[in-house]
Automatic annotation (TrEMBL):
The lineage of its organism: Eukaryota, Metazoa, Chordata, Craniata, Vertebrata. This is KIF-binding protein. The gene is kifbp. InterPro entries: KBP, TPR-like_helical_dom_sf. It comes from Echeneis naucrates (Live sharksucker). Activator of KIF1B plus-end-directed microtubule motor activity. Required for organization of axonal microtubules, and axonal outgrowth and maintenance during peripheral and central nervous system development. Residues 58-88 are annotated as: Disordered. It is found in: Cytoplasm, Cytoskeleton. One of its GO terms (biological process) is microtubule cytoskeleton organization. One of its GO terms (cellular component) is cytoskeleton. SUPFAM superfamilies: TPR-like. PANTHER family: KIF-BINDING PROTEIN, KIF1-BINDING PROTEIN. Keywords: Cytoplasm, Cytoskeleton. Belongs to the KIF-binding protein family.
Length: 607
């Protein structure tokens, strides 16, 4: 029987170690004009190893070769070599695994040098070698690694179903192996190493578990692409858990992935999981250290990029906290508001009683799955909001900056719903105005027209909400006949400001000649008609003791109400979009002329 001498085996092991060093270390120093120089050298060494192994195989006699056993799978179904073939620790089993390892690393080498088809061919050759063997501790790691890599290749080609097949097979191999054996398996690097350099059981286990963690990570992406979002979230969560347990993660990337996962949970109303993911993201991002101070002159480009990336990622996590709070408040508002949109305190107490025990039990069960460690929460959302706004400054991040401001504004709007003190509620809306108004006025309409329209409409509605609150306060205190000049001035300011921004929104729809289009596009139909309706209502609410001013306000109000009615008559398909506003507009078109005539009559008598 042919056999490699210890010297020949030592040469093969040295070549393998050199190939690994060229790939992992030397390649990082390759010049830009020859970026794969070291990897090409590694490829030649791997080919030499393969030829040595094949020549040894050819030198054997027929009697030396073991016969492949014909064993049936446990479940009676073919399962990609899981239960049939050579024993993993047999001579033929180990030879097939060694050839498979070389094919695997040749496949990875070709993938890394952007030769995907050749890489795929070598990886499939690896699988062919493994098909000769049963899964065992000697080869299970290779079984999983090669399918992970093929899954990546096919996913990169948008062949998601094919990628899914390879990855799910890797998963089933892992699960069956852990159920039936579970001992620390041989790592792929150990096939070509001397006995004194073999890994410890602890290191073998860590590497094997990391390979399976990669399987779960890739499956999470596959399920996401297939639209199986719940399944994708489960695999993503498990991946993050395993990365922490194995202490194999980049703190900032891990934190951003956890924060992104939180957004899925939040949209599903699963705030326990969402909060935990964000808390973990905040804690883990802290492991990356403090953001370095602004550059010293000697700061390298790499250090500058690291500082910028750290600030950006932490700002993005802070934005996710804002989304969490905003969604939580908005969902609570939907549960607790009454028929007129106010806080129903009776409903609030009833829901508290009904949900308290249920939530306690639910949280106990769900916390079992939340293994991210300490569940630290933030002391004040304000600091996180400011962190996000500080990074996404207007210069270079206009849309991000404005989206954060809009979220911040929406957060105050949601908080205002729970505030029973009307003065404090009004101040919350004033905060919204203070955030949005400067940006709205500074933005260039030529480049940010759609964003400006959003801001103008939100400002108009915010002033309108403040107006309604002031009116409610006034009605509680006294009738409008006894209003002092300061209150009237404040009331008219809010009224005029709301009308101004509604009108600015309408003006943004006009042609250069200042005319509204005869036909409003679907995306602006309701906002435009609502804006005309609101302007009409606001004009009629202005307080003035001067009859000509009163008459002018009423005429402007009537003109806007008529527009809503006439547009819907000319375009009947628009009526369903503004059903309530149209009904009230028709009513006011009938009532206002009578009010105008009475005012004219009084003016005539007084003259």
């Amino acid at each position: 029987m042919a056999c490699l001498s210890s010297e020949e085996w030592g040469i093969i092991c040295d070549k393998f170690a050199n190939a690994q060093n060229l790939t992992d270390v030397e390649s990082k120093n390759d010049p830009d004009n020859d970026p794969f120089r070291s990897k090409y050298k590694a490829r030649e060494l791997l080919r030499e190893i393969y030829c040595s192994l094949k020549s040894f195989e050819a030198g054997e006699t027929e009697e030396d070769s073991d016969q492949r056993p014909e064993e049936q799978p446990v479940d009676g179904q073919p399962d990609e070599g899981i239960c049939r073939g050579f024993s993993g620790d047999s001579r033929d089993g180990l030879r097939a695994a060694k050839l498979g390892v070389v094919e695997y690393y040749l496949g990875i080498n070709h993938v890394e040098t952007e030769e995907l088809s050749a890489g795929q061919e070598h990886l499939m050759n690896c699988i062919k070698q493994l098909e000769k063997c049963r899964v065992s501790s000697e080869n299970v790691s290779l079984f999983i690694h090669v399918r992970n890599q093929l899954g990546i290749i096919w996913a990169g080609r948008d062949e998601t179903d094919t990628a899914q097949g390879f990855l799910e097979t890797a998963e089933s191999i892992y699960q069956r192996y852990m159920k039936e054996d579970g001992s620390p398996p041989t790592d792929m690097t150990e096939y070509f190493t001397t006995e004194e350099k073999l890994l410890t059981h602890q290191e073998r286990t860590k590497r094997f578990e990391l390979a399976y963690t990669h399987t779960m990570y890739y499956l999470a992406q596959v399920y996401q692409n297939l639209g199986e979002t719940e399944r994708a979230a489960t695999y993503c969560h498990s991946t993050l858990q395993r990365q922490l347990q194995l202490n194999q993660f980049n703190p900032i990337e891990w934190a951003l992935n956890a924060a992104t996962l939180s957004q899925y949970y939040i949209t599903k109303g699963r705030y326990l999981e969402g909060r935990h993911c964000l808390a973990a993201a905040t804690v883990i991002s802290g492991l990356a250290g403090e953001v370095p101070s602004e550059a010293a002159a000697q700061e390298s480009d790499m250090e500058s990029d690291h500082r910028e990336q750290l600030r950006q990622k932490r700002a993005e996590i802070a934005r996710c906290w804002i989304k969490y709070c905003l969604n939580l408040l908005q969902d609570a508002k939907k549960l607790l508001e009454d028929t007129i949109g106010e806080l129903d305190t009776d409903c609030q107490e009833e829901l508290k009683r009904a949900r308290r025990h249920e939530e306690e039990e639910e949280e106990k069960g769900r916390k079992i799955a939340l293994l991210f460690g300490s569940e630290d929460t933030f002391d004040s959302i304000a600091s996180l909001e400011e962190k996000a706004k500080e990074y996404f400054q207007m210069d270079g991040y206009v849309t991000d900056h404005i989206e954060i401001l809009q979220d911040h504004s929406s957060l105050f709007r949601a908080l205002a719903f729970f505030e029973e003190d009307l003065e404090r509620r009004c101040k919350m809306h004033k905060r919204r105005v203070d955030m949005l108004e400067p940006i709205c006025n500074d933005l260039n309409s030529q480049y940010y027209l759609l964003i400006r329209r959003q801001l103008m409409f939100e400002l108009a509605e915010t002033y309108n909400e403040m107006l309604d609150l002031k009116l409610t306060l006034v009605n509680r205190q006294a009738d409008t006949q006894s209003l002092d000049n300061h209150t009237i001035k404040k009331f008219n300011h809010l009224c005029s400001a709301s009308a101004k921004y509604f009108q600015m929104f309408l003006d943004s729809l006009c042609s250069p000649e200042g005319k509204l289009p005869e036909h409003l596009e679907e995306e602006v139909l309701r906002p435009a008609l609502v804006a005309r309706f609101r302007v009409a209502r606001l004009q009629s609410r202005l307080i003035s003791s001067i009859p000509p001013v009163q008459l002018d306000n009423l005429n402007k109000s009537l003109e806007n109400y008529k527009y809503v009615v006439q547009y819907c008559e000319a375009h009947p398909e628009a009526a369903p979009a503004v059903e309530t506003e149209l009904e009230l507009s028709k009513e006011m078109v009938g009532l206002l002329p009578l009010k105008i005539e009475r005012l004219k009559a009084r003016m005539a008598v007084n003259n």
